[in-house]
Amino acid sequence: MTCAATAQVGVGPIAKPQPPELPTPQDRAYNGTIGLHVEAVDTEHQIFTVHETIPVQQIGDTVLLYPHWETASHAPTASISDLAGLMVHVDGVRVDWMRDPVDMYAFHIDVPKGARTITLDFQFLAASNAHLLRTDMIELPWQRVLLYPAGWYVRDLPVAATLVLPQGLTPFTSLAFERIDDRTLRFQPVTLEQLVDAPVYAGRYTRRIVLNDRDAKPVMLDLLADSAKDLAITPSEITHTQTLVAQTLKTFGAPPYRHYDAIVTLSDVLSPGGGTEHLEEGENNLPAAYVDAPSQQLNNRDLIAHEFVHAWNGRSHEPADLWSPTFNQPVGGSLLWVYEGQTEFWGRVLAARAGLRDTQQTLDKLAMDAAVVAHREGRSWKNLQDSTNDAIYMAGHHVPWRDWQRREDYYPEGVLLWLDVDARLRELSHDTRSLDDFAHRFFDAERSGQTTQTYTFEDVCNALSDIAPDDWATFLQQHLRSHDTGEAMAGLARAGWKLTYNDVPTETFRQDEEEAGASNLDYSIGLQIDTDGHIASVTWKGPAFQAGLSSGAHVVEVDGQPFSTQKLLAAVQMSATKPLLLRVTMDGKARDVVIPYRGTLQYPHLERIAGTTDRLSQLLKAR
Question: What is the pLDDT of residues 258-267, one digit of tens each?
Answer without folding.
Answer: 999 999 999 9
